[in-house]
């Protein structure tokens, strides 16, 4: 218990403005460790959020990153896990509250990071694909590929990405209708697809664990003529769908 308390105090000291940890001598060693700690986490955030870095500039990004580190210290031994709450932080961080697109841009960049690290999944076997032809859709449950993410954005994220990546200077209307996106990594290449409302509802219901019949019923509310067979076959071919289970 004493060791756990000391470790908690040590972690708290690293993310505070003062260094007053009893038992660590010389204190300069702790200063050195803290500087390395901040440097590693700031560089990690720069790696995970290159577009945010570009939008804010190196100096202001570093200041913002340090504020994030103070609020969200590292709790994992892997730097790949660090930065998951950057979008939530930016949404409440007053110095950037005029950049209303920033939290969703950060959410997108973290989704890209997760997709890049996600596990592989084998292609669907023919017996699994044959299940789609069964009439009892109530018993069918479809799993999306682990390297797949769905995003509903309230800002025109595709235009913002073009703005970030192509140095566009044109004005962007940040109050356009929501952008619905599918992020996927077939064969190690990240792809980004704009979805219709029906596509998003259908895939999202499947992802949430609804049966195929329930997903179809809810999608037909917004698109009565939705061709789910065509969509399912296309998503199977593209590797978006990883597995089909029969309950």
Task: Describe the structure in brief.
By secondary structure, this protein is mainly alpha-helical. 51% of the residues lie in helices and 11% in strands.
- Strand-residue fraction? 5-15%
Q: Please give the count of helices.
A: 11
Give me the side-by-side strand order of the main sheet: 2-3-4
Radius of gyration: 23 Å
CA-CA gap between termini = 47 Å
User: What profile does the largest beta sheet have?
Assistant: 3 strands, antiparallel
What pattern of helices and strands is seen along the backbone?
A: HHHHHHHEEHEEHHHE
Q: Which structural category do the helix and sheet elements fall into?
A: mainly alpha
Q: What's the shape?
A: elongated
Number of strands: 5
Mean pLDDT: 85
- The amount of helix comes to 40-55%
Textual characterization of the structure:
The protein is mainly alpha-helical and 247 residues long. The protein has 11 helices and 5 strands. The strands form 2 sheets. A 3-stranded antiparallel β-sheet has the order 2-3-4, sandwiched between helices. A two-stranded antiparallel ribbon has the order 1-5. The chain is elongated and about 65 Å long. The mean pLDDT is 85.
Outline the fold blueprint.
Blueprint: H1 2-14, H2 27-48, H3 50-56, H4 58-71, H5 86-92, H6 102-117, H7 126-130, E1 140-144, E2 148-153, H8 157-166, E3 179-184, E4 191-194, H9 197-207, H10 212-222, H11 228-237, E5 241-246
Antiparallel strand pairs: 1-5, 2-3, 3-4
Helix pairs in contact: 2-4, 3-4, 5-6, 9-10
What distinguishing features does this structure have?
three-stranded antiparallel sheet; 247 residues; mainly alpha
């Amino acid at each position: 218990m004493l060791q756990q308390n000391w470790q908690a105090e040590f972690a708290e000291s690293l993310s505070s403005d003062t260094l007053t940890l009893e038992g660590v001598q010389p204190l300069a060693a702790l200063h050195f460790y803290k500087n390395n700690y901040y440097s590693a986490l700031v560089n990690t955030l720069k790696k995970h959020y290159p577009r945010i870095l570009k939008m804010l500039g190196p100096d202001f990004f570093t200041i913002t990153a340090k504020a994030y580190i103070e609020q969200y210290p590292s709790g994992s031994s892997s730097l790949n896990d660090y930065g998951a709450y950057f979008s939530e932080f930016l949404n409440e961080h007053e110095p950037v509250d005029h950049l209303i697109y920033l939290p969703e841009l950060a959410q997108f960049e973290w989704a890209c990071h997760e997709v890049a690290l996600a596990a592989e999944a084998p292609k669907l076997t023919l017996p699994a694909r044959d299940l789609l032809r069964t009439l009892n859709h109530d018993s069918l449950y479809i799993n999306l590929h682990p390297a797949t993410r769905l995003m509903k954005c309230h800002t025109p994220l595709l235009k913002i990405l073009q703005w970030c990546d192509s140095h566009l200077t044109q004005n962007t209307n940040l109050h356009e209708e929501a952008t619905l996106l599918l992020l996927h990594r077939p064969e190690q290449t990240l792809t980004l697809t704009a979805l219709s409302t029906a596509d998003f509802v259908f895939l999202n219901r499947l992802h949430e664990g609804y049966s195929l019949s329930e997903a179809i019923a809810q999608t037909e509310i917004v698109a009565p003529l939705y061709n789910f067979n065509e969509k399912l076959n296309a998503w199977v071919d593209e590797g978006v769908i990883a597995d089909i289970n029969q309950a």
